[in-house]
Design goal:
single chain, alpha+beta, ten-stranded antiparallel beta sheet, binds 2-acetamido-2-deoxy-beta-D-glucopyranose, membrane, signal, DUF1191, transmembrane helix, transmembrane
Length: 317
């Protein structure tokens, strides 16, 4: 009985989870909410790691960051700049990013730090665009207040390119036909725009950027963006389908077993109940009348000798 209750609970939880999953990732829905919060926490982690070990960075020098082993493959870099320098000179070739002059940061600070992220093979784990798959890694450009040294968990700034836009040049796109730029803004909302000649995307603000193609409706996380993405994504797709099918089969069998057990118990209960009520209604011939008599009474009823109704019965009051 306990195992049935346990199984029911498991099935219920699975049902809730899977319905939640499907509603969270249904086509057309942006990956906001929970997913955005997870991506944000990755931002904080990468900021801390890119600041860590560079307690006194030299202005204008790019430092490559180290990441914890649980996200190995991800790359970060950091540069500390004067706001005036960013505004009047920009920053050329900050990895894939080319920052022109005219970029301002809000709220105003004298010194800020720009953090670069390349999520590589972790891209589609942290970012997702329903109905699309990444054909390039997700790249991040974020700005932080960096007034005081050593740098710690400083607040995020908003940057805005007031003149020319910031450009992002993607290398080694796996595919080009139908490719679109995607920008996940600071709130995690995705926006699509055209890919420019030379595999360039442009932006006026900070956030996360990549290139996607339509995946033909089937939304499957592809774990290898860029490079040999196609072969891998197909393998994952097939593996996903097989695993999903198997899981469905197992769950169906469990459900069937549960229904069987439940039915048997129900039938047993019904039989017991039936037997009881039959017993209860067993008629006994007493004094020439057919009266329903409970069979389990300890003293056998002897109506003939019974005393008259008690004086406090409702009828007499
Ligand atoms: C990875 O490890 C770091 C430190 O060891 C930890 O702070 C962080 O939460 C972990 N991140 C993930 C995504 O597991
Ligand atoms: C990404 O690649 C690194 C090796 O470069 C590996 O350690 C890591 O497990 C991979 N991550 C995922 C999600 O496949
Ligand atoms: C990080 O920020 C929080 C609040 O923003 C602050 O309370 C905490 O002391 C900071 N940690 C460090 C190491 O500066």
């Amino acid at each position: 009985m306990e195992s049935i209750a346990c199984m029911t609970t498991m099935l219920l939880i699975f049902g809730i989870l899977s319905s939640h999953q499907s509603s969270a990732h249904s086509p057309g829905q942006p990956s906001t909410g929970f997913a955005a919060a997870i991506a944000k926490s990755l931002d904080s982690l990468l900021r801390d790691y890119s600041f860590h070990g560079v307690s006194h960075p030299r202005t204008g020098v790019t430092y490559q960051g180290k990441v914890p082993s649980n996200i190995s493959g991800v790359r970060t870099a950091m540069v500390r700049l004067r706001s005036g320098s960013l505004r009047f000179r920009g920053l050329k070739r900050f990895h894939e990013f080319d920052i022109p002059d005219g970029v301002i940061a809000r709220p105003y600070v004298q010194r800020l730090a720009l953090v670069y992220q390349n999520l590589e093979n972790w891209s589609s784990i942290y970012y997702r665009l329903p109905g699309h798959r990444f054909i390039a890694p997700v790249l991040g450009l974020l700005a932080y207040e960096a007034e005081d040294l050593p740098l710690t968990n400083s607040t995020e700034l908003h940057i805005l390119a007031t003149e020319k836009p910031i450009s992002i040049k993607f290398r080694n796109l796996a595919q080009k036909t139908g490719a679109k730029c995607v920008w996940f803004d600071p709130e995690g909302l995705p926006r699509l725009s055209d890919l420019r000649p030379g595999n360039v995307c442009i932006t006026r603000r900070q956030g996360h950027f990549s290139v996607v193609v339509n995946s033909g409706g089937l939304v499957v996380p592809n774990l290898r963006p860029g490079g040999a993405a196609d072969g891998w994504s197909n393998i994952w797709r097939i593996a996903g389908a097989v695993a999903g099918g198997f899981l469905f089969l197992v769950l169906s069998v469990l459900l069937l077993m549960w229904v069987k057990v439940y039915r048997r118990e129900k039938r047993m209960k019904e039989m017991v109940h039936h037997a009881e009520s039959e017993e209860a209604l067993q008629k006994q011939r007493i004094g020439g009348a057919q009266l329903p008599v409970a069979p389990m009474v300890r003293t056998r009823p002897a109506l003939e000798n019974e005393e008259p109704m008690a004086p406090h019965s409702p009828a007499s009051e």
